[in-house]
Design a protein that fits this description.
Strand order of the largest sheet: 2-1-3-4-5-6
Strand content: 15-25%
Radius of gyration: 27 Å
Largest sheet: 6 strands, parallel
Distance between the termini: 84 Å
Number of helices: 21
Number of strands: 21
Structural class: alpha/beta
Bound molecules: cobalamin, iron/sulfur cluster
Length: 562
């Protein structure tokens, strides 16, 4: 019996995955090599990754197995059709088929939902006796003990950056709303026996490998043992982890000592509100800079993922995020447009709010806007995303991020050059025009005279926010968010306001109103103290109003007084 396993080509809107790009940055997924390893030895199993070689549609085989993420689905269906026309049965599995099995079944003979470990042999037996079922789904997740080592020998070794991949865990202890992993693995997080991982790693040729885990440090005790056991092997490795790893100095040190040279971290957003919305509040924004520093102190290259288009993102987010990457010397920022993946809570929410633009899965690739964002138009999100991809890999930005005394300097530069070659394919787009104004409206203004400030004691005590005797702050902090659809800027003020702060605020608001912004709504409720000059100035401008029971009412709008 002959089985051909196929990974469909990835058709990206602007990045042509040329052989050179794949050779520079891709490692091989473990999907088909794992499936091949699960195949009984009497079956002749082969793999085609369409990204690196063409499919032979005339091949004489007994079964075709296709895998695919969501955006591969349309191509996977085409491939299936070609083989089925010749009477060759096709089975599909992987993230997409597992999320939408009934859709997949319309295009293939059989669908494997979830992991293949407990069903693949049975499927082959059914095929042999001519009774292939429409769906296969294991009753439980497979045991992580005794998993066969993936058949890396079936890959074209020289086509990828590396084929040295291994997996130590499956799943993730977190449940971020946008992530497919939780949907696929539920709340489970399973670890392979360390002995088996070590044995597999020992067998890999060369010094470098990638652990394709979703979160290699999801169980700290396990990770510590694994890293300790990896040390004597003197390998270099890259993987993915959640940012919680950076909060455990012992774990981070062990990771570095065991050969960790690069980590992909889902930073996602610099807005705590966004992170809370998507159930990722365990990423603590105030600790981000410290986390990046800790990784760099251990000479670990940071590949940081950022998502654009979350509900609190306005058009200032692109520039703000890029400047953060530059300030913190993030070696390889990875930018994504928020993409609702079927099966995830995010998909359910966006769909129920009627915000999905279409269900053309080929466009659900992380680089194309497929939903209606809250604070921006689709066009602004797409343009801002294109801008950040290109600008983030401009020479200027690369210079700011990697040119500093560090070990492995050349690796950092070379990886940036590889990423730059991809980013260059992004269409030319302008930074959204209000970006600069929005940066200035999200800022801290130092005050000059804090002696004469009058505290809003009574009101603040009622709000349980201020105790008598608390000192007035010497800064005014502006937190702003712009709603492009309403053409309205919401500004929350925090701290104190003296004359200088009030003047600066008025100046910035004028700048905003001179641009496209039609309305500004100020929220003074977190301002603990004002100077009388500031009150006079803001009142003259029509920005402050008194209201019964409360001293200052949140105001206001266009007609600022001259
Ligand atoms: C490694 C990886 C990558 C690599 C891929 C490199 C390459 N050569 O393609 C990189 C980092 C480049 C990458 C990029 C992307 N990735 Co990725 N990636 C992964 C990751 C972490 C591991 C994949 C892997 O090897 N798994 C191990 C194998 C053993 O598991 P498996 O693939 O699930 O296969 C099992 C079953 O699904 C089943 N099965 C799978 N296929 C088939 C087929 C048949 C016939 C059968 C019977 C069974 C079967 O059997 C297997 C054994 O149980 C997964 C997460 C994950 N845990 O799988 C995400 C994941 C697959 N990626 C994902 C995404 C979204 C992307 C991007 C689109 C991100 C982006 N926005 O740009 C890009 C797309 C690039 C591309 N290649 O097309 C999503 C897919 C979600 C979805 N529903 O489509 C995942 C699930 C991660 C997530 N957080 O949501 N990725
Ligand atoms: S931490 Fe990462 S892998 Fe885990 S659920 Fe969140 S996004 Fe997914």
């Amino acid at each position: 019996m002959k089985i051909r396993l196929i990974d469909p080509a990835y058709d990206h809107p602007y990045i042509r995955h040329s052989q050179k790009v794949i050779k520079n940055i891709w490692f091989a997924r473990l999907t088909l090599t794992t499936l091949a390893a699960l195949t009984p030895p009497d079956v002749d199993v082969r793999i085609t990754d369409e990204n690196v070689e063409p499919i032979d549609f005339e091949e004489d085989v007994d079964l075709v197995g296709v895998t695919g993420m969501l955006m591969h689905a349309p191509r996977a269906y085409q491939i299936s059709q070609r083989f089925r026309q010749r009477g060759i049965p096709v089975v599909m599995g992987g993230p997409h088929a597992s999320s939408l099995p009934f859709e997949a079944k319309e295009h293939v003979d059989s669908v494997v939902i979830g992991e293949a470990e407990n069903v693949w042999k049975g499927l082959i037996e059914d095929l042999k006796v001519g009774s292939l079922k429409s769906f296969y789904k294991a009753d439980a997740f497979c045991s992580m003990e005794g998993l066969p080592f993936p058949r890396l020998d079936l890959l074209h070794k020289d086509a990828y950056m590396t084929i040295n991949c291994a997996q130590t865990t499956r799943g993730c202890p977190h449940q971020c709303d946008f992530c497919h992993v939780t949907h696929f693995f539920g709340k489970t997080y399973r670890c392979r026996p360390v002995d088996e991982v070590i044995e597999e790693v020992k067998r890999l040729e060369g010094e470098f490998l990638v652990f394709i885990d979703d979160n290699i440090a999801g169980n700290r005790r396990y990770a510590k043992e694994l890293f300790t056991r990896l040390k004597p092997l003197k390998k270099k490795w890259a993987s993915q982890a959640s940012m919680t790893l950076t909060r455990d100095p012992e774990l981070l040190k062990l990771a570095a000592e065991s050969g960790c040279v690069s980590l992909f971290l889902g930073v996602e957003s610099l807005s705590p509100e966004n992170l809370k919305d998507v159930n990722k509040a365990f990423n603590r924004v105030p600790q981000f800079e410290e986390a990046m520093k800790a990784l760099h102190d251990h000479d670990i290259m940071v590949v940081a993922g950022f998502i654009f288009g979350l509900d609190h993102d306005d058009e200032g987010v692109f520039e703000r995020t890029l400047r953060f990457c530059e300030r913190n010397r993030i070696e390889l920022p990875s930018f994504f447009v928020l993409t609702p993946l079927p099966g995830t809570p995010l998909f359910q929410r966006i769909e129920s709010e009627g915000r999905l633009l279409h269900k053309d899965w080929s466009k659900y690739n992380g680089a194309t806007v497929v939903f209606r964002p809250k604070l921006m138009t689709e066009e602004t999100l797409q343009a801002g995303f294109n801008w950040v991809c290109k600008e983030g890999y401009s020479w200027g930005s690369i210079f700011k991020r990697v040119f500093h005394p560090q070990q492995r300097f050349f690796t950092r530069v070379l990886s940036n050059i590889a990423y730059r070659s991809i980013a260059q394919g992004t269409p030319e787009s302008q930074l959204p025009s209000l970006s600069g104004i929005l940066q200035r409206m999200n800022d801290t203004i130092p005050l000059r005279n804090t002696r004469d400030l009058i505290q809003r004691v009574g009101e603040k005590i009622a709000e349980k926010k201020l105790f008598i005797g608390q000192k007035a702050t010497d800064t005014l902090r502006l937190y702003s968010v712009y709603n492009e659809r309403l053409k309205t800027l919401f500004v929350r003020l925090e701290g104190s306001i003296d004359r200088k702060g009030a003047k600066e605020l008025v100046k910035r608001l004028r700048g905003a109103l001179d641009a496209e912004i039609q309305k500004v709504i100020l929220d003074f409720k977190d301002v603990g103290a004002f100077s009388s000059e500031a009150i006079a100035l803001l009142s003259r401008q029509g920005l402050l109003q008194t209201e019964e029971g409360k001293l200052w009412k949140a105001v206001n709008a266009p007609g600022m007084n001259p």
